[in-house]
Amino acid sequence: MRRPCDANATWTTIWFFARAVQPLFARFRCEGQEHVPLTGGCIITCNHIMGPDFIVVGYASPRQIYFMAKSELFAINPALTWLMRSGGAFPIHRGEADLEAVEHALDLVRSGHALGMFPEGTRSRTGKLQRGRSGAARVAILAQAPVVPAVVINAERLFKPENWARLRKRDQITVRFGPPLAPPAAVDDSRALRTYTRDIMAAMADLLPAEMRVGESGGAGATDRISTQEGETA
Prior knowledge:
Elements (H helix, E strand, L loop, with lengths): L8 H17 L1 E5 L10 E5 L6 H8 L4 E6 L7 H9 L3 E3 L6 H12 L3 E4 L17 H9 L3 E7 L7 H4 L7 E6 L12 H18 L23 E3 L1
Parallel strand pairs: 1-7, 2-5, 2-6, 3-4, 3-5
Antiparallel strand pairs: 1-8, 6-7
């Protein structure tokens, strides 16, 4: 597993801790790390499942990811708020036009950081990919930065006692990164925005096993290809 190349002290400390305890909880396979640009701004889009997907994709990434997270998480307790902010996360108020969060996301990408977003907006209770929203595509177009599609598979098993509390082979969790998708040049073209959103979701769907590609909201309209990238297992 490649250590993040641009991480701050908090992210690096968490990464090394996760590296030390990971064998206790799961076998880990990462594919396509070479698709994540090591410099320059980008947006890493990930599927949103019923598990610690942000932990898993953050652990797998060769760069620190600055996650946009729902504002409710920052009101649980001060220690968690400090940890999240120290690790680069920032709040967004869902269900409203949070221009401050959007501007912060754009500033991060334009200053050369990797932004993490979940374009489905809400967690999939079935594990299947849902229809994507246009937020990630919009940020990429405004910042003129590529989107790196990513998926996590089986992350919901990570902390289940039946997986780690017994003397048995741990379940495997897989993370896949796909090739970057360059944004269209037209900033105010609504048709280009819709097309780019569909392209992002289709690229994510292509990285998933077939049974996870179409969810209750209609899925991503992707092809039936299954990713067969080379990867590394821990």
